[in-house]
Design a protein that fits this description.
This protein is of the alpha/beta class. It has 3 domains: about 100 residues, Nucleotidyltransferase, domain 5, CATH 3.30.420.40; about 90 residues; about 120 residues, no CATH class. The protein contains 14 helices and 7 strands. β4, α2 and β5 form a beta-alpha-beta unit. The radius of gyration is 27 Å and the shape is globular.
């Protein structure tokens, strides 16, 4: 009498690519250069693990999905169950022209599984839960500021459409002072509908401004934590880096040691030129489109402050402007400032002005 052996895939590596969406996942499973299956399932990591353990028991599973709205929660569930999982930057996934022309969810999941098996994918930095939620708060402030700007523009648009001129002594008021708000509240529109529209916009503005104050208060409280305070205080000695910019730098980077060099950090921010090479010809293009959108803006903004306040930066900027446009020169200054920021962060020392190096 023969005894049936239980199915076992011990020491067999399975590579799983997931194209994540809100309502479903497209999953592709590969092993030994063969695509086993591509299927749709509920967006549930535990359900996927149960499927893998049922159909390929004892196997060694490697999982990848792209960075995006899905965040890090699925990866954390896989990690809790000792499953190898990475999140990759979509721009780093090798893609053929055919795949670009015929983009679909199954194709994307197959591509991820294939490139994971080929070992051509690299995982992005994964912050801790505490770090992720602090970044969430910082980015919430950014969205609130955007909403405030939109509301201000709507108010100005309403005034312009009705031929209401802003008094000259308020025209340069970028921060919308209390006196300016009082003037807006004193405006009388021609109809009750118009009056309601203006009052409603002003009410929205007041609510948004209060939200902004509350978020800033909470951020200052979070910044008192011992693991954050020393870094933020050091960053605030850099010209152009006040509290908000310092917290933005901290919450977008967290761990400076993950950047092996100054160029690595500059590339992450987006302060390097894109290049094209063919044979012996290397052509440099304009600044790369790949960037951290939160950091590149503040680094360029801070660079303009640095060339005004730091004599060494002033001298360097003047020299650069002799051979390039000021817009290109300020990017070079921003990269140089990034180098100084990296040093200040690592050593937690104050920024040194007039340092020629």
């Amino acid at each position: 009498m023969h005894t049936a052996r239980s199915l076992s895939f011990a020491n067999t590596h399975f590579h799983i690519g997931i194209d994540t969406h809100l309502k479903n996942w497209k999953v592709t499973i590969r092993t030994n250069g063969i695509e086993l299956k591509t299927f749709s399932m509920n967006p549930d990591p535990l359900e996927l693990l149960a499927y893998l353990r049922k159909n390929y028991p004892g196997g060694i599973y490697h999982i990848v999905y792209e960075a995006g709205f899905c965040g890090f929660w699925a990866l954390r569930v896989f990690k809790e169950h000792q499953i190898d999982c990475i999140i990759t930057n979509p721009a780093d996934v090798p893609t053929s022209d055919k795949e670009k022309a015929n983009k679909s969810d199954p194709i994307d999941s197959r591509k991820l599984a294939r490139e994971l098996e080929n070992k051509s994918l690299h995982g992005i930095y994964i912050p801790s839960c505490d770090q992720e939620e602090l970044r969430m708060l910082m980015r919430l402030r950014y969205r609130i500021v955007q909403s405030q700007t939109r509301t201000k523009n709507r108010i100005k648009g309403l005034l312009y459409s009705q031929g209401i001129q802003i008094p000259l002594h308020f025209s340069g008021n970028q921060r919308w002072s209390h006196a300016f708000i009082l003037w807006l509240e004193s405006i009388s529109m021609k109809t009750t509908a118009g009056q309601f529209a203006l009052r409603n916009l002003l009410l929205q503005l007041k609510e948004i401004r209060q939200h902004n104050k509350d978020i800033l208060k909470q951020l200052r409280q979070e910044a008192k934590h011992h693991s954050i305070a020393s870094i933020v205080n050091a960053l605030m000695t850099v010209p152009g880096i006040a509290f908000i910019n310092a917290m933005t730098l901290y919450t977008e980077i967290f761990d400076m040691s993950r950047f092996s060099s100054e160029d690595h950090l500059a590339a992450f921010i987006g302060l390097i030129p894109s290049t094209r090479s063919s044979d012996d010809t290397i052509k440099g293009n304009s600044i790369t489109k790949r960037q951290n959108s939160f950091l590149r803006y503040i680094m360029i903004e801070s660079a303009w402050t640095a060339v005004r306040e730091d004599p060494a930066m002033t001298m360097k900027f003047k020299d650069l402007c002799k051979r390039m446009k000021s817009q290109d020169a300020i990017v070079r200054i921003a990269k140089k400032l990034t180098k100084r920021i990296r040093y200040v962060w690592i050593h937690q020392e104050e920024y040194q002005y007039a340092l020629v190096a």
